[in-house]
Amino acid sequence: MKIALVASGGGHLKEISFIESFYKKHDHFFVTFERPNSISLAKKEKVHFVIDPKRNPIKLIQNIIQSITIFLKEKPDVIISTGAGVAIPICYFGKLFDAKIIFIESFCRTEEPSLTGKLVYPISDLFIYQWEKLKEFYPNGIYGGLLI
Predict the structure, then answer these.
(1) Which tens digit of pLDDT belongs to each residue from 95-115?
(2) Where does 2-143 sit in CATH, by number?
């Protein structure tokens, strides 16, 4: 099984590291934005950097093209993401090619869902939220408790 670990730099990337004991057992790679913590991660892991669209339509198109290219090159069986925006293009593209999508809603989302969570929820094969309050937004999701 090959796993794509998709997370924006910073806290989202830190959150995905909490499941390291799982993904280390499998062939895996990361897709993220270039940030200090992701640059240091690239020294010990396989990391693909994509452009951060920052709500810019031209950069979003570049990000989508990069995501498609990475997906076709790596051909992951499973995409696991903790968000944020970096997840949307690759998750949707992965779904088109029958990759399993696992999304873990950020632990900082205690009361309301994230935009990424709302957009990826409909295509997720497994959607995990970390606060029980979010069940009302994700009725088919699973309460997993805190990763931390």
Answers:
(1) 999 999 999 999 889 999 999
(2) 3.40.50.2000
